[in-house]
Design brief:
The protein contains 3 helices and no strands. By secondary structure, the protein is an all-alpha fold.
Length: 62
């Protein structure tokens, strides 16, 4: 019960850094950089998946 109240209290606190980023308009830069990194990771995972499938097919054909 005490843990739940601590978690609720933490969730209700304002995040000052996010407020200042939002006020300066820099939150869009943060969101953009995060999006680019996420897309890069997703692209890399798809690339690895294709390479692994090729290797599996080569092993299967032998």
């Amino acid at each position: 019960m005490k843990l739940i109240s601590i978690l609720i209290f933490a969730a209700l606190q304002r995040i000052e850094m996010a407020d200042s980023l939002r006020a300066n308009g820099k939150i869009y830069v943060v969101a953009g950089v995060f999006s680019i990194i996420a897309l890069g990771i997703i692209g890399y995972l798809f690339s690895l998946d294709r390479k692994i499938k090729k290797l599996e097919e080569e092993i299967k054909d032998k």
